[in-house]
Structure formats: structure tokens, C-alpha cells
Amino acid sequence: MKYYTVQVKARGENRYIKLFKAMHKDSPVKIHFPVRNLKIRRQGQMFEDIRGIFPGYIFLELDDTANIADYSWDFRRTEGFFRFLRSNQDIQALQGKDLEVVLHFIKQLGGISGVSKVQFDENDRIVVAEGPLMGMEGKIIKVDRRKGRAKIKLDLYDDSFAIDLAFEMIKG
Question: 3-state DSSP call for residue 3?
């Protein structure tokens, strides 16, 4: 399988996917938009919120025999499209570490990254027992125990950004 990245209007990813699927019902392209589940405190109350892991980006999965050029105009004509990554003239499949990071989140249950189970060792370092933070320990740049969040640094096409993922402490 090959995976490609499309930049779309931020916070309009689900709308874009719905429009594309309505316009191209027979398209063999699978579209992924990995999301994360966060607990957010507003005015003293806790709410669960679903947010994109890669805001403004969706990922296309094509069979190895398919050519992205055959489908690129279908995506470009859908409202909310900005560009393919690297560029519209140089559409490149995800490779190496970029592909590993994206697949890590796509393979989560239903594309939704839930809450990780963690504990802290004697040196006060985070140890992930299970969940989406598993295997991402080296990418953690900040831990907020009070909010139950770990900020991780992700790289995609030579660009870096940080996102928060939720965790629960377990007794070890």
C-alpha cells in the first residue's frame, strides 16, 4: 500500500471526506483522518473532545498498482482542498519515519487514539504500558500530570509540530 497526504481546510477534514465520498462513490482510495480523544476542563466540568492528530491533513491509501495521478483531479475538485504534499506538481508517497508515524495512528482502534496507561519510574520518567503513546516515549517533550496529557513532537515532510495525547496513571 502507498499512503499520500492531502492538506485540506483545518477543522473541515470530516466535511471534505464526506463531500469526496458523495462525489466519488466508486473510488478505490481509502481516506484516513486519525483523531485523538482528549479530556478538556471547561468552567470546572470535564468534557471529552475528539480532535485531529494532524489538523488540516488527511491521508490517502492506495493499492501499490494504483497511480495517484489518476485520482488527483478528483481530490482537487472537492471543496476544501489546498494541496498534495510535497506539492501538487510533486506528489510523493509517505516513506520512512513519516509513514511509520502516520500508520501508528491510523492503526489505532477505528482511527481514534484513546487514553494511554502510564506510570512513572523511580527517576520520574514516564513509562507507557499501553495505548497510543506506546513506542512514542522518545518523542515526548512535556508531561502535564495534572491535566493527564503528554505533549509529543511529530515530524511530517520535514515539518515538526507538537500535539497533546491523554494518559491515565496506573499503579505500578
Answer: strand
